[in-house]
């Protein structure tokens, strides 16, 4: 999910592997929180029946795809055939159009202020989510820029600048270089899209255990249960100054708690009982996400989404990339080499992330996540 408070990020069921590979089958849109976007759009097709032809082509035409495969070519990690699936999910903070009120800037630049790797295990019953702090200093690879040139990359570059420099392709390339893991899919949603999706869902029920008041994100919540609309939900996942130590790492914990609440809420929305609500949700979803080119049709999204419908919030293990504060600039973080490698090795092997990987990380410390009740 996006953030604003910056201070200075043949079918989808068969990966192309020379003719008949099978890597990571059905796929969905964002760990189910983002999964809701693809899932809701695909659900319209599942209803079937005469008269849906127009709706199909309308929704199909909404989807915006980016050809990551062509952009990156062969300079990518090997596609491991172990039945798992990896998806890079980004929340972008473009200041263009209706997003402009959420921040300054020239209206053209955008950053990936929320980044998560969703790893779906073989069998598609469980998943792990690794949040990458936007201020993580990384070695950025050479990338084609969004303006037609080439950026040489280099060391000690902020992670969220990869998207600013080269869009989705550079963000994927950076993640793949960091992890050694090929991303099977890419999904992105911006400020406005996130708000609309929450409003179409009828809000999200959140129980806060402490007061959260942050004028920067226009949020003022007392302890208790609240049904947050889109604007309030956006404020909650963007806030940093009102929780924990006021940093980005605490905000990630809050985002993860919100995502669990959203996943649980999706089950109770009742969109299947209301065709009008289902279409409205699907129209919003398909209009506000950007996908890789293998998911940019309604049929592909349907196959992608159906594979993850069984994953509940308690089937997901959420962690932050193991990091420590940078010794040169304490406003930045750097990956803990040994611990980060434990994370990547576990995901490559389709294994659970070991506890040792995060026990010494600054990313999973603090009490920011406790501000929202984990049901």
Range of helix content: 25-40%
* Unreliable spans: 2-33, 38-52, 95-108
Radius of gyration based on Cα positions: 19 Å
What is the CATH architecture descriptor of the domain at 35-201 and 290-364?
2-Layer Sandwich
Please report the number of helical segments. Answer: 10
Strand content: 15-25%
Mean of residue pLDDT values: 79
CATH class of the domain at 35-201 and 290-364: Alpha Beta
Distance between the termini: 21 Å
Characterize the overall form. globular
The SSE order reads HHEHEEEEEEEHEHEEEEHHHEHEEEH
Strand order of the largest sheet: 1-14-9-2-3-4-15
Question: Which key features would you list for this structure?
Answer:
375 residues; alpha+beta; Nucleotidyltransferase, domain 5; two-stranded antiparallel sheet; 10 helices; 32% helix; disordered N terminus
What is this structure, in a nutshell?
By secondary structure, the protein is of the alpha+beta class.
What does this structure look like?
With 375 residues, the protein is an alpha+beta fold. It has a domain at 35-201 and 290-364: Nucleotidyltransferase, domain 5, CATH 3.30.420.590. Helix content is 32%, strand content 20%. It contains 10 helices and 17 strands. The strands form 6 sheets. It has a 7-stranded mixed β-sheet, with helices on both faces. Helix 2 runs parallel beside helix 8 (275-288), helix 5 runs antiparallel to helix 8 and helix 6 packs antiparallel against helix 7. The longest helix is centred in the middle third of the chain and has 19 residues, at 161-179. The chain is globular and about 45 Å long. The two termini are 21 Å apart. Mean pLDDT is 79; it is low at 2-33, 38-52 and 95-108.
């Amino acid at each position: 999910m996006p953030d604003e408070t910056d201070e200075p990020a043949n079918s989808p069921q068969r990966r192309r592997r020379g003719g008949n590979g099978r890597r990571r089958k059905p796929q969905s849109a964002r760990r189910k929180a983002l999964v809701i976007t693809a899932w809701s759009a695909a659900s319209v097709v599942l209803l079937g029946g005469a008269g849906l032809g127009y709706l199909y082509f309308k929704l199909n035409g909404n989807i915006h795809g980016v050809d990551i495969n062509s952009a990156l070519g062969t300079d990518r990690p090997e596609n491991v055939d172990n039945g798992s699936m990896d998806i890079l999910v980004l929340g972008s903070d473009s200041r263009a159009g209706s997003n402009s009120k959420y921040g300054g800037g020239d209206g053209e630049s955008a950053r990936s202020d929320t980044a998560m790797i969703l790893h779906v295990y073989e069998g598609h019953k469980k998943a792990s989510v690794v949040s990458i702090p936007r201020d993580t200093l990384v070695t950025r690879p050479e990338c084609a820029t969004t303006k037609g040139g080439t950026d040489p990359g280099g060391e000690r570059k902020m992670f969220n600048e990869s998207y600013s420099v080269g869009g989705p392709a550079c963000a994927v390339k950076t993640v793949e270089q960091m992890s050694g893991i090929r991303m099977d899919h890419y999904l992105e949603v911006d400020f406005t899209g996130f708000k609309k999706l929450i409003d179409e869902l009828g809000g999200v029920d959140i129980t806060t255990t402490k007061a959260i008041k942050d004028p920067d994100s226009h949020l003022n919540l007392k302890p208790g249960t609240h049904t947050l609309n889109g604007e309030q939900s956006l404020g909650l996942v963007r806030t940093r100054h009102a929780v924990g130590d006021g940093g980005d790492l605490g905000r990630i914990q809050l985002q993860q708690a919100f995502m669990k609440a959203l996943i649980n809420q999706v089950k109770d929305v009742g969109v299947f009982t209301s065709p009008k609500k289902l279409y409205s949700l699907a129209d919003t979803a398909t209009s506000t996400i950007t996908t890789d080119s293998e998911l940019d049709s309604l049929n592909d999204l349907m196959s992608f989404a159906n594979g993850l419908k069984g994953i509940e919030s308690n089937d997901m293990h959420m962690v932050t990339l193991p990091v420590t504060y940078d010794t040169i600039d304490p406003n930045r973080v750097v990956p803990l080499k040994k611990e980060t490698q434990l994370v990547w090795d576990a995901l490559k092997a389709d294994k659970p992330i070991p506890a040792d990987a995060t026990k010494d990380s600054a990313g999973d410390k603090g009490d920011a996540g406790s501000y929202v009740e984990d049901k």
